[in-house]
Amino acid sequence: MKLQVDYPEINLYSLNQPESRAASPKQLNCAIQIRDISTPESQRGNKIMFTEDGIIRELYYNRWVTSFDDLVTDYLITRLTKSEAFSGGVISARTLHKPDYILEGRVLESKAVNDKDVRPREYYIELSMSFRLIKTNLSQTGYQDVMVKQYEVRINRDEDDIETIPPAYNLAMNQIGDKLLGDMVKAIKEDKSDIMEFE
Hints:
This protein is α/β, with parallel strands linked by helices. The protein has a single domain (26-198), classed as Rossmann fold (3-Layer(aba) Sandwich). It is built from 2 helices and 8 strands, in the order E-E-E-E-H-E-E-E-E-H. Strands 1, 2, 3, 4, 5, 6, 7 and 8 form an 8-stranded mixed beta sheet that branches. The chain is elongated and about 60 Å long. The mean pLDDT is 87.
């Protein structure tokens, strides 16, 4: 008699960095701190959720390798570090190093949808995030906003296979990461230009 029960294998997913498609921007003389990205209560933990025909379901054997908020935070730290856009580097909130700018971020909404009630059927993910780039100006008011942005991305999936959900989230993060980096570089350049004119 067989007593051992064979359980389904648990698949763990992460967010991978995109391949370098363009030359890195000219380095800016500053250090960036990325604070821990916050997520809605329903998205905390490493569970992958999806909505099918209006019903929210949870994937038991397909999970993120760590909590979604940690996953997004680590992704952005790595993405901005690899860009080599900031001469002082990109640091986490757990360091004592004093940054020139602080990036705060929040996942506003993330959802994977299998909608079989419409024709043609739709399978997609949607990810929206907000960011605030803050200048640490301790000699004056303390802090100053230099950029406030919100990004929304929708990635269509070819089929309702649940294994297409993590790669779609990965593509969405790649797109948001590219837009964020470009907007940060532009905002910091403008901020530094304003300082030079003031001086």
